Amino acid sequence: MTPRGAIEEADLLDLWRMAARRLDAGREDEIVDVLMDIDRRFWQRTTTTFESWRLADILDAASLELGLDVTDAVLEEAATHHLDGWTEHITHDPHAVPVVRALRERGLRIGLLSNTNWPRAFHEHFLERDGLSSLIEVRMYTSELRYVKPHPSVFLDTLAALGVDDPGAAVFVGDRPYDDIHGARRAGLRSVLRASPYVPDYDVEPDAVIDELPELLSLVDCWDD
Length: 225
Description:
Strand content: 5-15%
Strand order of the largest sheet: 3-4-5
Number of domains: 2
Radius of gyration: 19 Å
CATH superfamily of the largest domain: HAD superfamily/HAD-like
Oligomer: single chain
Low-confidence stretches: 1-8
Order of helices and strands: HHHHHEHEHEHEEH
Number of helices: 9
CATH class of the largest domain: Alpha Beta
């Protein structure tokens, strides 16, 4: 999947700016600064309390801080403009479909766990577009959960949804050493790091490191033996 760091901050800025213009063109810069600051503050929870959050939480906080109904303005802009605007920026690895299909053919169950403040429908749009939604049986978004990765509970919630009782029988693949690998190991899962230049490093040892998704197939076959 595309890591958050690979998506230009300018794309998020566009959404905030369009909403700010709708709310009060004379306060556009002030509103944008507040929205960006609140978004960063919520994301910082990943390294402190691990509490999850929804887009609605950001908008509620901004509405309170600015004394404006930010929620309606942002959701209207997102619905009418921003989803299509992000389409070209949000892409999936070209190997994702064939690799996930090959894993399914091996009899494995596939789940997705994403740290996000966006609603499910936003992500489902792109999974459906790229032919992944029918291949991924369980799709978990932290905007619907109490915590975010690396909190162990979200990994265990995902396993429960997949019907997996033993975390040691599961493998988590991610590109973030802290959120994904550290989190998966704490929850008792095997972990595979897909190396990425877009995310910060963290002192944790994954069970394996891959550069490309197809390498995962030989790993799984080896572990299955």
